[in-house]
Design brief:
The chain is mainly alpha-helical. It is 70% helix and 3% strand.
């Protein structure tokens, strides 16, 4: 009897201790967290395969940084995300200071000045700046009366400073992510879709003008009509739309001149990499060969000829998906895409079920970062998008990128942990 009583006491004590330990995280989304942990572990395994013959294998470092990121994410999830509303301007200021510091005392590598040396490690502030912009914009847009033209202009002005600092590094890939963050968060805050089209119109005009002039004329007419229908002062807004889209052509030429030669090659050669098979088109050609070599079932882990013989430069970072495609084939690639889809689905679910608009916008901002990077990274490895140097979240090697992704997940877990479930949907999708 005494033994049974002691056993029951021990089990009761153990259960109570476990509940006390887990209590701060009792409401977090464990499914989302397990997906991210599994993806990071799989990324480490893929990097190990890529660098199997290397003396220094980065897979262990990737796994270690992932462990640190997990601790950070769980720590963030313990605290109520609403406290950031009081500190969002401080976050915004620190974000810009870090980006300015890069320009003044940054480390230059591969033709770009993007890193700061901290204790012997290169830190990339632009990766963390994405999180800073999400927090700032969520704070600016969380009020229900934000769907007006003045809020849109203020949002664009606030986002323009970190965007410009990142673009000047130059970091074209991350600057594109900033644009997507702003667009998606404005949409989620019930901004008129016509205004979002007007926002994107200068970039589209600059591209269309050089690709297909009749298409540019048609696009300008469409944009003029949208401005006429959606902005109160019709004549002024329509004329302004025409001037802006015409000016975008010349501005596009100026921006093109600011790009490095390797960046120009990345943007052009994805359409026909065979024009420079040993130069700018080499990465894409080898990536497509590797993915094609994988077939349906893949060549097997640690068995990919393109991967193991180092035919693909930067495969542990930007082109890690090609290793998955070669060694695990079409089936392995589809499973990876399903995992990313599940992560995005959970982020949308959290954003759509959270009563607080600030938390909802935080979740949708993180979704914009992850979904866009996954789409562009995989598209560029198979030749459907320009090579912009955007990593594959949780898979690609990169200390700053991995840590920033875990910080983003920590913010979303905090939203889920402290959310109030709403009856009415903030945004009907």
């Amino acid at each position: 009897m005494a033994d049974k009583s002691q056993s029951r006491f021990f089990l009761s004590y153990l259960t109570e201790s476990l509940q006390t330990f887990v209590h701060p995280w009792r409401n977090i989304d464990w499914f989302l967290l397990l997906l991210v942990i599994g993806l990071t572990g799989f990324g480490s395994l893929t990097i190990y395969s890529i660098e199997l013959a290397e003396e220094f294998n980065r897979s262990y470092q990737h796994l270690s940084i992932g462990g640190i990121g997990l601790v950070i994410a769980l720590t963030i999830a313990r605290f109520n995300y609403r406290g950031l509303l009081r500190w969002h301007w401080l976050v915004y200021t620190l974000t810009n200071i870090s980006l300015i510091t890069v320009m003044i005392a940054g480390v230059t590598a591969k033709g770009a000045q993007r890193w700061i040396n901290v204790g012997g490690f290169n830190v990339q502030p632009s990766e963390f700046a994405k999180i800073g912009v999400v927090i700032t914009l969520a704070a600016l847009l969380h009020n229900k009366n934000t769907a007006n033209i003045f809020t849109v202009i203020r949002t664009l002005a606030v986002a323009a400073i970190p965007w410009g600092l990142v673009f000047l590094q130059p970091d074209l890939g991350t600057s594109l992510v900033f644009g997507v963050i702003v667009t998606v968060m404005l949409y989620w805050a019930n901004t008129n879709p016509g205004w979002l089209i007007l926002m994107a119109s200068p970039l589209i005009s600059a591209i269309l003008y050089h690709l297909y002039f009749p298409g540019w004329l048609l696009w300008t007419l469409i944009i003029t009509g949208i401005a006429w229908l959606t902005i109160p002062v019709r004549v002024v807004s329509a004329l302004s739309a025409i001037v802006i889209n015409c000016g975008a052509v010349e501005l596009g030429n100026v921006f093109w001149g600011l790009l490095k030669d390797y960046q120009k090659d990345r943007l052009i050669l994805f359409l026909a990499p065979e024009k420079d098979p040993l130069g700018g088109g080499y990465h894409l050609i080898q990536s497509r060969i590797a993915i094609g070599n994988g077939g349906l079932n893949g060549t097997g882990l640690f068995q990919g000829s393109q991967t193991q013989l180092n035919f693909i430069p930067e495969q542990h970072t930007d082109f890690i998906f090609s290793a998955v495609g070669e060694e695990l084939g079409f089936i392995g690639s589809i499973i990876l895409l399903i995992v990313f889809w599940l992560i995005c689905w959970r982020l949308i679910w959290i954003a759509n079920s959270t009563k607080d608009n600030f938390g909802s916008l935080l979740a949708i901002g993180v979704l914009a970062i992850i979904a866009f990077q996954v789409t562009i990274n995989i598209s560029m490895t198979i030749g459907l998008a320009p090579i912009t140097g955007i990593p594959l979240p949780f898979m690609s090697y990169g200390r700053s990128a991995l840590l920033s992704n875990f910080i983003a997940i920590g913010l979303v877990e905090s939203v889920h942990n402290y959310r109030e479930i709403k009856k009415n949907i903030f945004k009907n999708t």
